[in-house]
Automatic annotation (TrEMBL):
It is found in: Cytoplasm. GO terms for cellular component: cytosol. GO terms for molecular function: 4 iron, 4 sulfur cluster binding; metal ion binding; tRNA-2-methylthio-N(6)-dimethylallyladenosine(37) synthase activity. CDD domains: Radical_SAM (cd01335). It comes from Bergeyella zoohelcum ATCC 43767. This is tRNA-2-methylthio-N(6)-dimethylallyladenosine synthase. HAMAP family: tRNA_metthiotr_MiaB (MF_01864). Catalyzes the methylthiolation of N6-(dimethylallyl)adenosine (i(6)A), leading to the formation of 2-methylthio-N6-(dimethylallyl)adenosine (ms(2)i(6)A) at position 37 in tRNAs that read codons beginning with uridine. Pfam families: Radical_SAM, TRAM, UPF0004.
């Protein structure tokens, strides 16, 4: 299965080394939650590389421990709390060790962290990473330090991220930050602030540089990429105040996709995440026009019931969503979709739940990321609605949704069998060191026997002859 979200039970993976000659201090940096956090950690590592820190994978040798945290569900926060307490003994034996919390939990819990969790010396929100050098100076003086100010225009456009822990082939490129959508269940608009888009030129430059450095696939990242709008001004919500010239020359997401597709014509391009309400058909048209834009869209719907969609403040109906999928399939017949689903949202009836199952059957998603609703303090749902579905009902509905997605994934994977797919080699298969693993354009994972002369980063034609629920099994046809 795809690792879009990191398993909340797993610890955030400590990242590979970012080294700069002459640096003497050691940073242990762990990320939790969505891809955006992983991408942000690369910005943080870059900033701290300039401040004398190289990263380490050994927590015992760290001078600075930073956890880039996630608030999306209660479980995610609990994982981070447990991780923080595991540093207790280190902190005792190493008085100069600094422990910091970055990201969404920093934003949500603010000073509470410093007051209640005495293990933390530093709290930095997602828009304040440039301030890290100053904040660290404060902690060196023995004081606690905090900056959780959210910005209207910070995009870290000029900071060249240090690529951490990757395979040297696939990379994230952040294009928007924050979210203005206010889905009632979601904490992101509160922890990541207003939506703003990054200058397209800095995006293009980053993509070109990645290509020059051997990268073969990029994922354009944002909470809601389809809402991308660059007009040379600040947040998207101020677009109405833009000058005529700014309005005329504004760049929308489909245009940005085209610019990137042309700038790095052999680079595979993916993007995440899309919100159906902001998705324009032009995006699918670009996909049809440029073969290097992958035929895959992660298009969360959250529920198949109109009542729930309304309660969640999703700005579309079930039918509108299904129409969008239909149109997309018309424009790009070999397109694949994945979903995010929330079960057990406030007031969800058995009928609503059945609507979710029937919508899934209709769309036939390749994969899914499914969650039981977890109430988040401060969100509109927490303020105005009742989290009234019993835990056992949520769990049962979740199992049903997961079981159905399993069936659908197996069916979709089977539909790729008997055909040749272009696979980008990303690394050695975890299960068999004599096999490569990679993905096709539709994002399906494929494993196949290694052949001499092949290396990570190669695009190979693989004939798929079998499948499991989440993996295609193939053999190489020819190399090119
Ligand atoms: N646009 C974002 C979505 C962020 S949240 C992105 O880039 O992925 C990721 C998913 O977590 C959501 O699509 C939703 O399915 C789930 N989620 C968000 N808030 C939740 C909550 N309070 N309880 C359970 N799941 C939630
Ligand atoms: Fe959250 Fe909805 Fe934005 S799920 S990130 S508020 S699109």
């Amino acid at each position: 299965m795809q690792e879009k979200y990191i398993d909340e039970n797993k610890q955030g993976e400590a990242y590979a080394i970012a080294e700069k000659e002459g640096n003497t201090k050691k940073l242990f940096l762990e990320s939790y939650g969505c891809q955006m956090n992983f991408s942000d950690s690369e910005i943080v590592a870059s900033i701290l590389n300039e401040q004398g820190y190289n990263t380490t994978l050994k927590v015992e040798e760290a001078d600075l421990i930073l956890l880039n945290t996630c608030s999306i569900r209660e479980k995610a926060e609990q994982t981070v709390r447990n991780r923080l307490s595991s540093f207790h003994h280190l902190k005792k034996s190493k008085p100069n060790l600094t422990v910091g919390v970055l990201g969404c939990m920093a934003e949500r819990l603010k000073t509470k962290f410093l007051e209640e969790e005495h293990l933390v010396d530093l709290v930095v929100g997602p828009d304040a990473y440039r301030d890290l050098p100053n904040l660290l100076k404060e902690t060196e003086g023995g004081r606690d330090a905090i900056n959780v100010i959210l910005s209207k225009d910070e995009t870290y456009a000029d900071i060249n991220p240090v690529r951490l822990g990757g395979n040297g082939v696939t990379a994230f490129v952040t294009i928007t930050r924050g979210c203005d959508n206010m889905c009632t269940f979601c904490v992101v608009p509160f922890t990541r602030g207003r939506e703003r888009s990054r200058d397209p030129h800095s995006i293009i430059n980053e993509c070109k540089e990645l290509w020059e450095n051997g990268y073969k696939e990029i994922t354009l990242l944002g909470q809601n990429v389809d809402s991308y709008l660059w007009y040379g001004g600040g947040p998207k919500k101020d677009f109405a105040k833009a000058t005529e010239m700014q309005k005329l020359t504004a760049v929308h997401f489909a245009q940005l996709l085209e610019m990137v597709a042309k700038a790095v014509p052999e680079m595979r391009i993916r993007f995440a995440t899309s919100n159906p309400q902001d998705m324009s058909l032009d995006v699918f048209r670009m996909m049809a026009k440029y073969p290097n834009i992958c035929r895959y869209v992660h298009l969360p719907v959250q529920s198949g019931s109109d009542n729930m969609l309304k309660a969640m403040n999703r700005q579309h109906t079930r039918q509108e969503y299904l129409d969008l999928i239909k149109e997309a399939k018309n424009i790009v017949p070999d397109i694949a979709f994945s979903q995010d689903m929330i079960v057990g949202f406030c007031g969800e009836t058995e009928e609503d739940h059945q609507d979710t199952l029937s919508l899934m059957r209709e769309v036939e998603y390749d994969y899914g990321y499914m969650f039981a609703y977890s109430e988040r303090p401060g969100t509109p749902a927490h303020k105005k609605m009742e989290d009234d579905i019993p835990a056992d009902v949520k769990q049962r509905r979740l199992s049903e949704v997961i079981a159905l997605q399993g069936e659908l994934s197996r069916k979709r994977m089977a539909s790729y069998v008997g055909k040749t797919h272009e696979i980008l080699i990303e690394g050695t298969s975890k299960k068999n060191e004599n096999q490569w693993k990679g993905r096709n354009s539709q994002n399906a994972v494929c494993v196949f026997d290694k052949q001499e002369g092949q290396k990570v980063g190669d695009l190979v034609n693989v004939f798929v002859y079998d499948n499991t629920q989440g993996t295609l099994i193939g053999r190489v046809e020819e190399k090119y």
